[in-house]
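Open question from group meeting: does this chain pack into something compact, or does most of it stay loose? Before anyone orders reagents, we agreed to write out a predicted structure and look at it together. Recording both the input and the output here so the notebook holds the full record.
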Amino acid sequence: MDFSEQSSKLKPNRLLKVFKVIIIVIVILLILLAGLAFYGWRYVTKELKPVAASEQVVRFTIPTGSNPTQISDILEENGLIRNSSMFWYYLKYTKEGIQFKAGTYEMKPGLKNKEIIDHLNKGDIVKVEVMRFTIPEGFNVEQIAAKLSTQKLVDKTAFIATTDSDRSYSCGWTADIPSDKAIKHRLEGYLYPDTYEMKKDSTTEDIIERMLCEWDNKLEQLPADWQTQLEKQGLSFHELLTLASLVEREVVVEEERAKVAGVIYNRLKDKMPLQIDATVQYLFDESKERLYEKDLLIESPYNTYLHTGLPPGPIASPSLASIKAALYPEVTKFLFYVTKKDGTSGHLFAETFAQHKKNIAKSNAKK
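Structure tokens returned:
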């Protein structure tokens, strides 16, 4: 027999066998893939099913700036979904998650994925009851405590005691407060005067901390070089608040803040007593309509008629405008000023005592 003929007859048979093997392998692979797909689909379907229903309300918070991955993790941690990874893929597949709103939510376990997504898209956050209060510029600690107490937000005595404690706070400039027993109230001047909205169940400590922290926000509105200017003036932040509080209590006319601040700097430079009535008024529980000679002789480190330099600390909470005036005073040679008696609440300024006496006479003539 010719071997070449035999070989040619065997080739089709071998090819047929190889083809059959390939077909069998492909079929097996398809069966395996189908099985994997089936079990994979079962797994995904199971992981995307709602968790067991419950009447127990779950409260959770979505922080501002959270992305879909972080939100998915929060939902799983709070037992509202089975698998954060599967939920994230579901969000991606359905093109959801971009419109989710930050805030505090309340949901019951057992919600479908679509229901959870609807709540987050709508921003169905918990409505928190708030309290609102306004602290006027120039109020001191005792006035602040009285106002908050009148609104039944704090106990007046407890509020004052807390401001006098050595408690540490997370923000503000309280680290600058000197350990001086002469200071009447430790946080005097450090509670920023403004309108606040806080949760209704806020504690005395919460309120104080919120007011302290507001300084961090407000100081950002000052010129960028304000701290350099503070060093240039040779003041600590505590002294800045003190000087600004004097301006706040002395000035009514906005345009005069920097000018009065300039007078204070001039008198400090010349080592003259500041003789500011507001520092004497600070010694009384309630401001007097008029100060008498005997009042000006009351011994106190706050009495700027008896002592030169700044008082030990602020006498009130100054506004940002007074802070700015204390940082950037108007440069003049004025050493004196007297309140006009014409109802404008403005002042007459003088460089000499002789001129000051004339201004006093001029002011009194307009009563």
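Observations to bring back to the group:
Strands lie at 58-62, 103-107, 130-134, 195-199, 336-339, 347-350.
The mean pLDDT is 90.
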